[in-house]
Specification:
Elements (H helix, E strand, L loop, with lengths): L28 E3 L1 E4 L5 E7 L9 E3 L8 H6 L2 E4 L7 H9 L3 E3 L2 H4 L5 E5 L4 E4 L21 E5 L3 H8 L8 E7 H8 L3 H5 L3 H19 L7 E5 L5 H7 L17 H6 L4 H16 L6 E5 L5 H11 L7 E5 L2 H5 L1 H6 L5 E3 L1 H9 L17 H17 L3 E4 L5 H7 L4 E5 H14 L3
């Protein structure tokens, strides 16, 4: 007869329907890499491996994708084994303040039961226990040091979160949202709708507009919302498209999406026209607080072709996302072609300047948002806009904000909701009473 194995001293015993020593789990810490931070240093919860939304759970998945949208926003934290810091879903989590921790694939299988994700230690503790905290680095820059802030949001609740901060962050002049996030929030499948004919495309546009109007209703006087037009890569599209076939691309990041994708969608102009008409009908004069930005566009010719494809009147403002080296060199051309603003997408720009996939953790050491080449590109875009009198907004991760403020000739920045909220909280805590 075999003698039952006894739990080692100091082990965490998890009580289940088995004998305790048969399910003994050492209360150990698994190291990882923090892909998205959180205002809280530690977040605990029971693991959820179903891919379905379970409120307050810790979502455990191999990799994040748009099909997990509802599961992600219901989660208190995410643990994965693939992905980089600036993937689209990681950006969603950063906006919401949901920590994302990447662990080794061999460790992911061990993550079960109740776990605690430690943002400051970049680790996960198996079991219900506390981890010793490390003091976070204090940023030097405060919201008051910035001239203008455009807040990256994923839903109307994020706008409300920023506008109810006490004291109010007066520098917040605008909010930015991706059309894809409005689609995911409303349960829409863009390609299914756009390729089902003009009527379905128009219904799709009206549904996106309804989501957009909900954001506008949360705005304070003097604020506005900028919607980045649909930019759905084929690999992401394949995960949420059910009625039509999505072409397989060997390198979706460099494939048919952004401006070139919109030019390829026959019925997107009908969808966008319905969106604008619905916004005007619902908001009346307040519709002027909504503007639009072209994603993933290389030069002014492509920008003007898209304007014509969408059938836009000449007086309708349209801004540009600068996120490729070609777009940096075309910044002055965009301004000359009538772009109302430039938004510099640092995350994509970094990966294209350095040939380092932002979603591939194997090349993470090469993905450097402060690389001299990246900073030179950011500076060139800012100076081109300044020369033309066109506002330029630079996206900054919280960890880069101090560095960017010190090295770029601009006071206009884009920030995620949770990172701005934390910056405002620290500024308040440091204010003498």
């Amino acid at each position: 007869m075999t003698t039952p194995r006894q739990p080692p001293a100091g082990a965490l015993v998890v009580v289940t329907d088995l004998w305790p020593w048969e399910t003994t789990l050492s209360a150990r810490e698994i190291p990882g890499v923090l892909l998205a931070g959180s205002p809280s240093t530690t977040v605990g919860g029971f693991c959820n491996r179903t891919g379905k939304p379970v409120e307050g759970s810790v979502l455990v998945v191999e990799a994040l994708g748009p099909e997990l949208y509802k599961a992600v926003i219901a989660s208190s934290a995410v643990i994965c084994s693939r992905g980089g810091r600036t993937g689209h879903m990681q950006s969603l989590c950063r906006t919401r303040g949901i920590p994302v921790l990447r662990v080794a694939p061999s460790d992911l299988a061990e993550v079960s039961g109740y776990v605690t994700v430690s943002a400051d230690r970049q680790s996960v503790l198996l079991g219900d226990a506390e981890t010793p905290a490390r003091a976070p680095d204090s940023p030097v820059v405060t919201p008051g040091d910035l001239g203008s802030i455009c807040v990256v949001v994923a839903a109307a609740t994020d706008v409300r979160t920023i506008n109810t901060l006490t004291p109010r962050v007066e520098q917040v002049e605008s909010f930015f949202i991706r059309e894809e996030f409005l689609c995911l929030s409303a349960g829409l499948s863009p390609l299914d709708a756009l390729r089902a004919g003009a009527g379905e495309a128009e219904r799709y546009g009206a549904a996106v507009a309804a989501e957009l109007c909900a954001l506008v209703r949360e705005l304070l006087p003097g604020q506005r919302i900028v919607m980045r037009l649909l930019d759905l890569r084929s690999d992401d599209a394949a995960r949420i498209t059910t009625e039509v076939e999505v072409d397989h691309e060997p390198n979706p990041e460099l494939g048919l999406h952004g401006a070139r994708g919109l030019l390829n969608e026959e019925h997107y102009p009908r969808a966008f026209g319905a969106l604008r008409a619905h916004v005007r009908e619902r908001l009346g004069p307040q519709a002027a607080r909504v503007s639009f930005a072209v994603p993933f566009v290389n030069d002014q010719d492509e920008f003007l072709r898209l304007r014509r494809h969408l059938g836009l009147p000449g007086d309708l403002p349209l801004s540009v996302f600068v996120e490729t080296p070609a777009a940096v060199h075309s910044a002055a051309g965009f301004c000359a072609a009538g772009a109302s603003e430039l938004f510099v997408g640092t995350k994509d720009l970094t990966q294209f300047y350095l040939a380092a996939d932002r979603g591939n953790h194997l090349v993470a050491p090469s993905y450097q948002t402060r690389h001299p080449a990246v900073l030179d590109g950011l500076r060139q875009a800012v100076e081109s806009g300044a020369g033309a009198g066109t506002p330029v907004h630079v996206f900054a991760l919280g960890a880069d904000l101090d560095h960017y403020v010190a090295h770029l000739p601009t006071g206009r920045f884009m920030m995620c909701t949770a990172e701005l909220r934390e910056l405002a909280r620290r500024e308040l805590a440091a204010t003498p009473r």
